[in-house]
Amino acid sequence: MKRLAVYCGSATPADPRYIDLAREVGSTLARQGIGVVYGGGKLGLMGAIAGSAMLAGGEVIGVIPEALVKGEVANYDCELTIVSDMHERKAAFTRLSDGFLVLPGGVGTMDELWEAVSWAQLGYHNKPVGILNAFGFYDGLLEFNRHMAEVGFVRPAHQGIIMAESELDLLLTRMAAHEPITPITSMNPDSL
Ligand code: AMP
User: Fold this and answer.
1) What is the DSSP letter of 167?
2) What is the mean pLDDT of the chain?
3) SS3 state of residue 103
4) What DSSP assignment string belongs to 3-29?
5) Predicted confidence band at 74 (pLDDT cuts at 50, 70, 90)?
6) Is the pLDDT of residue 185 over 90?
7) Is 40 in the pocket of ligand 1 (CB under 6 A)?
8) Coil, strand or helix at 82
9) Taking a C-beta distance cutoff of 8 angstroms, is the pair 75, 39 a contact?
10) In angstroms, how far apart are the furthest CA atoms of the chain?
11) Are 48 and 19 contacting, i.e. CB atoms less than 8 angstroms apart?
12) 107 lines ligand 1 (CB under 6 A)
């Protein structure tokens, strides 16, 4: 994996472990020679990842919509691309990266995570989607994901799309060994 799209919160939680985690992830990715594609802002976990990755000599590409340049404090220190809207931003994340790495975050992070998962199901990309479940932050989400599968809303072929680990090294190893899944577009409609 040459570059990962990193999705995480634009907020700074009161608990300092979250920002520390983002800094650790940024420097680890840089040390492993993995570039970061991200939302291009300076705030919260997003800014912390970008800052630590650049400090460690890593490649950092930011993609930010024009309307958010002020609100998310555009990071002109990285290789920044200003795009016209959110759709262009997310298309760029997918085009420029070899996978999606998701850290703790809020609604925007959820939007990005589920788009990566649903687009994998549909066959718009075949890249790995990894959740760094630090501090058990995503326990509830992973439980709900299992529930969707048990009820029958997630097909067996797609139940492995989300990879989740609490340790970054283990997660990166699994993501690098990712085997493409069978997307809905390649399935027989009778079996759907
Ligand atoms: P958050 O997790 O809410 O702090 O957002 C993290 C990043 O996701 C920010 O850069 C947001 O601009 C971005 N984002 C992407 N899609 C959305 C969306 N539908 N709603 C809100 N934020 C979004």
Assistant:
1) S
2) 96
3) coil
4) EEEEE--SS--SSTHHHHHHHHHHHHH
5) very high
6) no
7) no
8) strand
9) no
10) 53
11) yes
12) yes
Considering only CA atoms, which of 176, 71, 172 is closest in space to residue 127? 176
DSSP 17-68: HHHHHHHHHHHHHHHTT-EEEE--B-SHHHHHHHHHHHHTT--EEEEEEGGG
Q: Is the CB of 75 under 6 A from ligand 1?
A: no
Distance 187 CA to ligand 1 centre (A): 32
**pLDDT tens, position by position, 11-69:** 999 999 999 999 999 999 999 999 999 999 999 999 999 999 999 999 999 999 999 99
pTM score above 0.90: yes
Check residue 11 and give its pLDDT: 98
What are the b/e assignments for 160-179, b being 16+ CB within 10 Å? ebbbbbeebeebbeebeebe
Read off the pLDDT band of 186 (50, 70, 90): confident
Reading the block at residue 85, the tokens are: 């809207």
For the record, the structure tokens of 145 come out as: 């994901």
